[in-house]
Design a protein that fits this description.
Elements lengths: L1 E3 L4 H6 L9 E3 L4 H18 L11 E12 L3 H7 L1 E4 L2 E14 L4 E9 L4 H9 L6 E5 L6 H9 L3 E5 L7 E7 L2 E7 L6 E9 L7 E5 L9 H8 L3 H13 L10 H29 L8 H18 L5 H12 L16 H8 L25 E4 L3 E4 L2
Parallel strand pairs: 1-2, 3-7, 7-8
Antiparallel strand pairs: 3-5, 4-5, 5-6, 8-12, 9-10, 10-11, 11-12, 13-14
Length: 389
């Protein structure tokens, strides 16, 4: 057997569960123990979020996305993961990380990583194996691949993804206003798939096409699907908290195994915080997204200090209750319908108060083109009707 050497000797020998004589001390957790602890926390989160009222039309909401992590210089890491090409020569050693993210508990359920420049399609295939019946996967346009959709449907799950701008699905039937039943084709083996494509219009943004396997327009209205896809942005905020709030941009590993161990420790801390925030959200009667992750991380550090300094397991339950209570106090300021112009010069002029009219000739009154006036379909004489971007 192996164990860790992170606890003081007094706690290791005088606690309720002292170390057995056959234990060999090490300075790090073994990889198998970290994987077991991470899986136990994920199972607890899934059990807590398994209630029917936390689902959307009976579907469990999951998101997936990929990010890149920069690693320290090491021959072992460079041999395993490689590096990007920099503008001035050699780039940093990096690894591609892809996570499966629960949108209710806001915790990473599964993750995979591979060498630099690994395609999203290769990484997502390992995560699709963990999907279950009744899952709705929200993914970015970088994962748009017909073979990926077929594998998701084979798991009896569903997907929602924006279509690429150069993709023109063939229209089979009109389901409603800006809502179409279409046929898409794989560019490699020409496999066809029936999907539903709907146009999304939002003030201040370009119109987008969302592709989904939810074909029933009555059970799954287009307006709800359009609002639902904006929840995918939660995985982007997760990566921001993971990299910047938790300081996951500074790694101390020297080998691929130690990187896996360090990454697992970060994921365990995230899941532990989310377990506390999930109980705190039920206490405050708000969703988890309304609570501050940065404040909860600070309370987590204080909670661990109290646990290690107390040594009496009788007070751990009260410490956990106080920890959850403090996590429920810190809220995030919700600012709905917040918009920023895409033109940076216009944004800077408005923020600096430089939008005063210049003296001289009056500008011509030009009417901005409406997004609704643009055609959505294009008729082809040979094949039929196709959707425009």
């Amino acid at each position: 057997m192996t164990s860790c050497d992170w606890l003081p000797d007094s706690l290791a020998s005088n606690s309720l569960f002292p170390w057995p004589l056959s234990v060999k001390r090490e300075h790090v957790f073994p990889l198998s123990s970290l994987s077991w602890l991470y899986g136990a926390l994920v199972s607890r989160l899934l059990t807590a979020c398994n209630h029917q009222r936390l689902r959307w039309h009976g579907l469990r909401l999951i998101a997936a996305d990929k990010t890149t992590l920069a690693l320290p210089e090491s021959p072992s890491l460079y041999k395993r993961f490689g590096a990007h090409r920099g503008q001035q020569g050699l780039g940093p050693i990096a690894v591609e990380l892809c996570c499966l993210f629960d949108l209710v508990s806001r915790a990473p359920l599964r993750f995979v990583f591979d060498k630099v420049c690994t395609s999203e399609h290769k990484l997502i295939l390992k995560l699709i194996r963990t999907l279950k019946k009744g899952d709705l996967l929200l993914i970015d346009s970088g994962f748009y691949y017909c073979a990926t959709f077929i594998k998701i449907l084979a798991r009896k799950a569903h997907f929602l993804i924006p279509a690429k701008s150069n993709n023109r699905p063939k229209v089979l039937r009109t389901l409603g206003q800006s809502d179409y039943l279409c046929q898409i084709k794989d560019s490699h083996d020409h496999t066809t798939l029936i999907v539903r494509v709907l146009f999304v219009y939002r003030k201040g943004f370009r119109r987008r096409r969302l592709v989904t396997s939810l074909l029933d327009p009555i059970a799954f209205p287009a307006s709800e699907l359009a609002n639902l896809y904006h929840m995918r942005w939660d995985i982007e905020t997760f990566y921001r908290d993971f990299k910047h709030t938790m300081k996951a941009t500074c790694w101390h590993c020297r080998t691929p195994t130690t990187f896996h161990q360090e990454l697992l420790v970060h994921m365990i801390v995230v899941c532990l915080i989310r377990v506390a925030m999930l109980e705190a959200s039920q206490l405050a009667k708000v969703c988890v997204g309304h609570l501050s992750f940065a404040r909860a991380l600070t309370e987590t550090r204080l909670f661990f200090q109290l646990i290690l300094s107390s040594g009496q397991s009788n007070s751990w339950t009260s410490m956990w209750a106080a920890f959850v209570k403090y996590c429920a106090k810190y809220r995030v300021k919700i600012k709905p319908n917040r918009q920023f112009p895409r033109d940076r010069q216009q944004y800077r002029r408005k923020s600096r108060g430089l939008e005063r009219k210049r003296p001289g000739r009056k500008p011509k009154a030009t009417k901005a083109p409406s997004m609704l006036s643009r055609p959505e379909t294009l008729k082809n004489r040979r094949d039929g009707v196709y959707l425009l971007s």
